[in-house]
Amino acid sequence: MTEENETTAEDYGLKIDPLLDLLDTDENPVDKGKIREAFVSLWEFEKASELEPTDQYLTTVALFIYTSHNILNDHNIRQDRARKYILEALRKWKSEEMEAGVAKEKATDNPFKAFVENNIEKIDEIYSWENFLLEHKKSDEKEWTYKMKKCWFAQFFIRFGRTDYIETACGFDQLPAQAREEYVDLKLNNNFMKLGAYCQFRYTPKKDS
């Protein structure tokens, strides 16, 4: 490998390093270097550096899920346990952003309303029409529902022949609601995991017990 190629590989590896630092597999020893190596190879294969920033973000998440699942499987870690480890790493990776959003929302008179108002634009940016065919059905202080007729993540894992990893990406999409469980309920109908044609998120205010 030439010095230039080594530099490029190192740059690509920086995309996944923060996630690998957060990947905790308990007592199960895992060679994270193999995850990094596979990620770098696939990042280059996908020509991900030429993508728009939002697509690079999606690709980073998808390749972390894909390569981590593969290597953890090679280390004889069950898929359900691997999914738990991967999602926990992703939760920690997003925690600073989510905690800031929660604090801002809880400082208002109506945290659920603030959640809706503060996140519609962000959802439209990350889950673009081109990649998800997302349509908002309702968005007010009583309900926020949007429907996706396409899923970039599902298409990615179908292309790589691992439809069983779609569930992990779905878990990633639920992290913001989980961070707001005090005041947000999420009802999710995801048919993409069954290779269906749509996914619907319905957020409502948390009802008092």
TrEMBL record:
* Top-level taxon in the UniProt lineage: Bacteria
This protein's species is Candidatus Nitrohelix vancouverensis
The lineage, from the top, is: Bacteria, Pseudomonadati, Nitrospinota/Tectimicrobiota group, Nitrospinota, Nitrospinia
Pfam families linked to this entry: ATC_hydrolase
This protein is called what?
L-2-amino-thiazoline-4-carboxylic acid hydrolase
Against InterPro entries, the record matches this protein to: ATC_hydrolase-like
